[in-house]
Design a protein that fits this description.
By secondary structure, this protein is mainly alpha-helical. The radius of gyration is 21 Å and the shape is elongated. The chain is built from four helices and no strands.
Length: 101
């Protein structure tokens, strides 16, 4: 009985759409974060004079500022995912629940 319920859910087109949409969006955000991180690492490895450049006449270097940008971008991408999950993915989940109930 449990297996037939699982099969009914797995075969449901709304469930497949939910999985496809959520996975695609998550992989896209993961690729964006990886690209941001790799760009930062390559700058650290191959552009030391650029990263050591002082910003604003103080002691802060461009590397520190860009490191903070990497951290902030992770929070922003997480916020984007949460917003999408709370709107689009929750709506798809509600439609699925109505369909299988």
């Amino acid at each position: 009985m449990v297996a037939s319920g699982q099969e009914r859910i797995l075969d449901n087109p709304k469930f497949q759409e939910l999985v496809r949409t959520r996975s695609g969006f998550a992989w896209t955000l993961a690729a964006v974060m990886l690209a941001i991180y790799l760009c930062f690492i390559f700058l650290v490895a191959f552009a030391q004079p650029l990263m050591a450049m002082k910003v604003g006449g103080g002691v802060t270097s461009l590397g520190i500022v860009l490191g903070l940008v990497v951290i902030v971008s992770a929070f922003l991408l997480t916020g984007i995912y949460v917003q999408r999950a709370n709107s689009r993915f929750d709506a798809l989940t509600r439609d699925l629940q109505k369909d299988i109930a």
